[in-house]
Amino acid sequence: MAKVLVETSARHLHLSQQDLETLFGEGFELTFKKALSQPGQFACEECLDIIGPKGELKHVRILGPERSATQIELAQTDCRNIGIKAPVRSSGDTKGTPGVTLRGPNGTLTVPEGVMIADRHIHMTPAQAAAFGLTDGDRVQVKIDGPKPGVMGGVLIRANDKCALDFHIDTDDGNAFLLKQGQLVTVLGTEE
Questions:
Q1: Is 58 helix (H, G, I), strand (E, B) or coil?
Q2: Listed residue (192, 191, 161, 167) closest to 179, CA to CA
Q3: Mean pLDDT across the stretch 22-44?
């Protein structure tokens, strides 16, 4: 049974270059704050407000680098607080998701789609996946120890050569199991 580190992702967003320039000004470049666990990805100094039909989330961190399409990743609790019904999706799968209004220093921008609850997933290389007896796209169960132990199902395996081994969940999943950043969990195997 393989052990994997947990990384809890708080609400955040990824911007397209066009949306970045609309919200911050022409030619604007994201400011590096700190590296994230996945190679080439980083937290930015810049934040935006996310405005939904029932409320707003202030100072939501932007993650870099820029993407081909703007994507807003929220927990279910965040979605309820701003009046959005977002689906659970894998990163990049924004078609048919709800939109919101983003507020930055250069004004506001309404994006027609892009809000999602990120699918819980484990990043790994194809070689690591093979060593675990898994392939890209498999769904596994993960055993969690601690004060609120349990088994989390439906965890997607995302295997490619640009990944570092990490189990990514949102704050709602983390809080439900009282998981700590960097805690080890056990991959039990594929779901039947």
A1: strand
A2: 167
A3: 96
